[in-house]
User: Fold this.
Amino acid sequence: MKLMGIGKYRFNTLYTASKNGEEYCPYDGRFVVREPQPPSSTWEKVHTFLTRLHLEIAEPIPDGLNSNKRPRHGLKKRDSPDLNKENIKHLPHGSISDYWRQCLAAYPGVKISRKLFCTDTQMYFNLTFHV
Assistant:
């Protein structure tokens, strides 16, 4: 295993194939091209909730300080000069847990993990602000 630079699971796969007399070496699953997985219904519900939240509740900051940077990073980072700050919307002050609990209340029969919600939130807002 050390000479070949492979782990115990890959070695076990190769060993089992050779022990069974298979003619060809089995594919290494890390390098097989996979089809994209369709999004789960839970993910779609979280995405719908975030879209509704962004369209109905989010609003631009009116005092001209509208930015896509977090406030504590404002001095270190600058917005790009071609960024249209009028299109950037911000949600009212709240934690990610507050929004997660709102999502759970919006879909009472669906189990939505906090990890899924946080991951989808990060992807959603990265796509929303950087397109």
Q: What stands out?
A: The mean pLDDT is 81. Residues 1-34 form one domain. The radius of gyration is 23 Å.
